[in-house]
Write a structure and sequence with these properties.
Chain lengths: 119, 116
């Protein structure tokens, strides 16, 4: 199956700094990428959807200036948490979907997730 | 808006036995996909099984099968011959078929314990 690699798997940063999380599709072109946040023992909460070369569409309540999403190529999307604070500590997961013509449009393929701890 | 409901926060099954996880959803769409994802302690999301709404036949994948009742908007997952490795969080998810950027809507999850 298609592989999505997310990096780093764990990161600890100081309050007030920014941290970048990368999501790469390794063997397919990801026309659409999704970023989720997951609190302990809860479901995945969609933060934003991005299409390659376009601005991300953020879900209601998600601060676009705080969670910057870039999808500059068909294999890479990044999530930057700016001016991180302890309340931003969470598990962040990306997923990617390919094109209809590529046959990878039906399901989303998930990265391994990133555990962010802000101290 | 579409909603997905998993009414069983936790379930337990003995090894080698069968367990069924429930899922209901609400949508006004006629064409859509339904999924079951597994999230083990590693937290990697793994696709277990997929069902296209236009297909009447229930999907099966080895020990995993679904009971898809479109009229009732029900999509349960049956795990046969349960194994210790099946212990995980299971999420039911919905996605409308139209639109390349259509998003997944997840249920709240069911934590499955497998006992010896």
């Amino acid at each position: 199956g298609a592989v999505v690699s997310q990096h780093p798997s764990r990161v600890i940063c100081k309050s007030g700094t920014s941290v970048k999380i990368e999501c790469r599709s390794l063997d397919f072109q990801a026309t659409t990428m999704f970023w989720y946040r997951q609190f302990p023992k809860q479901s995945l909460m969609l933060m934003a959807t991005s299409n390659e070369g376009s601005k991300a569409t953020y879900e209601q309540g998600v601060e676009k200036d705080k969670f910057l999403i870039n999808h500059a190529s068909l294999t890479l999307s990044t999530l930057t948490v700016t001016s991180a604070h302890p309340e931003d500590s969470s598990f962040y997961i990306c997923s990617a979907r390919g094109s209809w013509t590529g046959g990878l449009n039906t399901e989303a393929f998930f990265g391994q997730g990133t555990r962010l701890t802000v101290v | 808006a579409q909603t997905v409901t998993q009414s069983q926060p936790e379930m337990s099954v003995q090894e080698a036995e069968t367990v069924t996880l429930s899922c209901t959803y609400d949508t006004s769409e006629s064409d859509y996909y339904l999924f079951w994802y597994k999230q083990p302690p590693s937290r990697q999301m793994i696709l277990v099984i997929r069902q296209e709404a236009y297909k009447q036949q229930n999907a099966t994948e080895n020990r995993f099968s679904v009971n898809f009742q479109k009229a009732a908007k029900s999509f349960s997952l049956k795990i046969s011959d349960s194994q210790l490795g099946d212990a995980a969080m299971y999420f039911c998810a919905y996605r409308r078929m139209a639109g390349t950027a259509s998003k997944l809507t997840f249920g709240t999850g069911t934590r499955l314990q497998v006992t010896l």
